[in-house]
Amino acid sequence: xxxxxxxxxxxxxxxxxxxxxxxxxxxxxxxxxxxxxxxxxxxxxxxxxxxxxxxxxxxxxxxxxxxxxxxxxxxxxxxxxxxxxxxxxxxxxxxxxxxxxxxxxxxxxxxxxxxxxxxxxxxxxxxxxxxxxxxxxxxxxxxxxxxxxxxxxxxxxxxxxxxxxxxxxxxxxxxxxxxxxxxxxxxxxxxxxxxxxxxxxxxxxxxxxxxxxxxxxxxxxxxxxxxxxxxxxxxxx
Amino acid sequence: xxxxxxxxxxxxxxxxxxxxxxxxxxxxxxxxxxxxxxxxxxxxxxxxxxxxxxxxxxxxxxxxxxxxxxxxxxxxxxxxxxxxxxxxxxxxxxxxxxxxxxxxxxxxxxxxxxxxxxxxxxxxxxxxxxxxxxxxxxxxxxxxxxxxxxxxxxxxxxxxxxxxxxxxxxxxxxxxxxxxxxxxxxxxxxxxxxxxxxxxxxxxxxxxxxxxxxxxxxxxxxxxxxxxxxxxxxxxxxxxxxxxxxxxxxxxxxxxxxxxxxxxxxxxxxxxxxxxxxxxxxxxxxxxxxxxxxxxxxxxxxxxxxxxxxxxxxxxxxxxxxxxxxxxxxxxxxxxxxxxxxxxxxxxxxxxxxxxxxxxxxxxxxxxxxxxxxxxxxxxxxxxxxxxxxxxxxxxxxxxxxxxxxxxxxxxxxxxxxxxxxxxxxxxxxxxxxxxxxxxxxxxxx
Lengths: 237, 446
Prior knowledge:
heterodimer; A: alpha/beta; six-stranded mixed sheet; globular; B: alpha+beta; six-stranded mixed beta barrel; 13 strands; elongated
């Protein structure tokens, strides 16, 4: 099985002067292509730190993180940016759309930062429209974020996460700010993406959400406490 | 190129999100650029005014005038009741014979006389001069001819009158060929000069001249008919002055030789007038250089004042951009997460400040181009609300009202360039502080 990403003995310490906080104390796991992982754990367990490292937003204190065949832990700031742009799609709890941009422009944002700054042409526009259609917002491409509901905003951010065709999708409590109906809609989209072969890594508090994934990683005190495969619990629609 | 267009578009989009704030921020730069252009235009206008005045005198001319020496000097020098001072005909001969760079020279004597034709009369300045006077004072004829050398030699009683004199004395007839009475002598009018704008006073050494009430006669004729004695009745007592020449206007063959020639003239006259300095040497070219220096000082002072307002505008931009960076920390975090490099963030914020300052600069340039109109408004305001009638007629007043701001076209790109530079300078710090934000912290920012 091909791996989308792999972490080997990852540690992350924060030196706060008086104390050193050991947020991750040696985490190793594989993310095969097409995986759908839920990372769970109480606050302070290190799950956010792990997600930041997986998102190439930060470098580990020690250990390796392989993504797309490269060891992310050795990259400099610009290379990390390129990694995030090219390999990773982010979905945030609070959507994080850019207020002054329309739906379509928000979806285009990662295209702005592709390496070499290629022009955004007709093909790219159509691809963005296609993504907007896919998340069900084809008729609202010129709306601005404040004109959309929470669920709609999260759909925009999913489309945005997909625009550069990333290796993995990182979702940080994607349904945390949504009501249960919208939550189901978003999860359905994520499932569909996973069925299409996308690797999704999701941080969540809610066991009901976690149960819909293929695998759960439960973090505690900076270590993986438990890994469970729950492939069978994927709803068979 | 498309990349630049795109980042400018994105900057515009961000700026248009807060139209009022962007507009107010821009205002500082608008006024800064406007005042730079306006101040330089006024400075330029003032210098053009001075230059025009000097060029009217002729850049290659040197003017030597008789000046009444201080009274105590005169009393000690002669006991007679007739004041005798000023340039002599011998001075004229020495100057023209000894200094080779002088190509033309006009001796001038001026007396005020009543002139009369039939029943019409007026007071005019009677100027004794030679043929070259016409050209050297930029006068043109509307009728007839000017004085000639043969008029001088033959001591003819001929006169050329200025247009205004002609209008007063000869309301309905052609003045050429008619005779007028100057003092007690009759002269035949041979020509009429066109109107010429009066030359303004310069630097105290040369008073303003109104050419439109002049009568020109051959200087030799004037000397023979009127003598050198000039008797004036003033407040009941008579004063008599003996002056051979009031002025000698000299033309130098080359502009480069003007200053050295002027020096030679000064030295020569120092020898012929050893006791009292009863003459003044006016060199228009020197005045021109002085005017140039004054203009430089003017421009530097005015320009610095205007530059201060530009700097203030820049500080305003910096202030707003710092606030913007704080306000948009979250957006910066999102962009970083989506793949923006630090340089992309710097580029974004720098572009926003440059667009802000640049468009402010453009608007300022447009305002600056309207300076002449604005200045007309100021002149109107001053005339109607500030100045009393008599101050408006004074030298300073005339200077102010004659002043026409001239936009120095080099100042437009310069002012615009400065505004963009200030945009860059005031944008660098906020942009760098935005780029240095930790993406994780920035994403967490509320």
